[in-house]
Write a structure and sequence with these properties.
Structural class: alpha/beta
Strand order of the largest sheet: 3-2-1-4-5-6-7-8-9
Protein name: Bifunctional hydroxymethylpyrimidine kinase/phosphomethylpyrimidine kinase
CATH superfamily of the domain at 8-139 and 208-254: Ribokinase
Keywords: ATP-binding, Kinase, Nucleotide-binding, Thiamine biosynthesis, Transferase
Largest sheet: 9 strands, mixed
Number of strands: 9
GO molecular function: ATP binding; hydroxymethylpyrimidine kinase activity; phosphomethylpyrimidine kinase activity
Mean pLDDT: 94
Function: Catalyzes the phosphorylation of hydroxymethylpyrimidine phosphate (HMP-P) to HMP-PP, and of HMP to HMP-P.
Low-confidence stretches: none
GO cellular component, one term: cytosol
Length: 266
């Protein structure tokens, strides 16, 4: 007996061979939150708990073919972008997103949790000028805020001006993630029409946080695909990623991943 398909979410990102971030984290998050995850792989990384040993971009035509294959036949209720690596891939994805009516969550991935570059320096301007205007929501961490705007955020009071600078680049909403500041983990959602929402959670003493940014962006995309409005989608995603951080576990000799399956175990 045929069942109704769940909401469909497409992730456009790199593959993490260690399974903690990238495409792997995105699909685990989508499954946990009850949507059907689909993928466009932009790059393959050799990656483990100690860092990124190398990455190889896919040709733009391979990215384009994956995207159109899914969107033209299956359709999407939301799209999430992550690691895009190069100018050519950023341009390609921005062009493809121009034809999509569904909400787009852009995680402007610049470096890995270990500090390894995942976006060519010369591609930052392209991401700023061509991809961010396509975004329904952009989800930069503080390093990415500085990379995109030149603004260094050192305290919570500086997050709103940074959000305003990002909004001027074109996204409808911006979620500035304050996870690298001291105190509680505070994130600011700001909208183009002056909206402002703060989300706070306890800071857990757990170093195993690999995949946090990918997980949060994918969780927001999943909630948007289910029909949530942006403030509620971010609140639900924040709750999910907070639980995942709390349950983060050791793998290998370095930084382990967050626990994407924590909801199934409580």
């Amino acid at each position: 007996m045929s069942q109704q398909a769940p909401p469909r979410v497409l992730t456009v990102a790199g593959s993490d061979s260690g399974g903690g971030a990238g495409i792997q984290a995105d699909l685990k998050t989508m499954l946990a939150l009850g949507v059907h995850g689909m993928s466009v792989i932009t790059a393959v990384t050799a990656q483990n708990s100690l860092g990124v040993q190398g990455y190889w971009e896919l040709p733009a035509e391979a990215v384009r073919a994956q995207f159109t294959s899914v969107v033209d036949d299956i359709g999407v209720q939301a799209v999430k972008t992550g690691m895009l690596a190069s100018i050519e891939l950023v341009e390609t994805v921005a062009e493809l997103l121009a034809g999509v009516a569904a909400p787009v969550v852009v995680d402007p991935v610049g470096v890995s949790k270990h500090g390894d570059a995942l976006l060519a320096a010369e591609a930052v301007a392209t991401l700023r000028e061509q991809l961010l205007p396509r975004a329904t929501l952009a989800t930069p961490n503080l390093h990415e805020v500085a990379q995109l705007t030149g603004i260094t955020v050192l305290e919570e009071g500086e997050m709103r001006p940074a959000a305003d600078a990002l909004l001027e680049l074109g996204p409808r909403w911006v979620l500035v993630k304050g996870g690298h500041l001291s105190g509680d983990a505070a994130d600011l959602l700001a909208g183009r029409d002056g909206e402002e929402y703060w989300y706070r959670s306890p800071r857990y003493d757990n170093r195993h946080t690999h995949g946090t940014g990918c997980t949060l962006a994918s969780a927001v995309a999943a909630e948007l695909a289910k029909g949530q409005e942006m403030p509620q989608a971010v609140a639900a995603a924040k709750a999910y990623v907070t639980g995942a951080i709390r349950g983060g576990f050791a793998l290998g000799g370095g930084i382990g991943p967050v626990d994407h399956g924590w909801l199934t175990r409580g």
